[in-house]
Design a protein that fits this description.
With about 70 residues, the chain is mainly alpha-helical. It is built from three helices and no strands. The protein has one domain.
Length: about 70
């Protein structure tokens, strides 16, 4: 898997799992699936950062997201 793709997928999974965590906590349920999604998303982000030579800078992330979306929509 491409490190840019792994970073974007990890960020998307992580962002979408946050409302699930909040919902589970508000309904007094254990956030099992949301916790798994957070771990998966975090793991993908960490793997992408470690595998890319030089890592990612914070200001590069929006450009990487746009490039990945553009690459797979063409």
């Amino acid at each position: 898997m491409d490190t840019d793709l792994a970073l974007v997928v990890g960020l998307v999974v992580g962002v979408f799992s946050v409302p699930s965590v909040v919902s589970a906590i508000m309904e007094s349920r254990a956030p099992r699936v949301a916790a798994f999604a957070l771990i998966l998303g975090g793991g993908l982000v960490v793997w992408a950062i470690q595998e890319k030579p030089g890592g990612y800078k914070l200001e590069q992330i929006p450009n990487v997201v746009v490039q990945v979306i553009g690459r797979y929509l063409n």
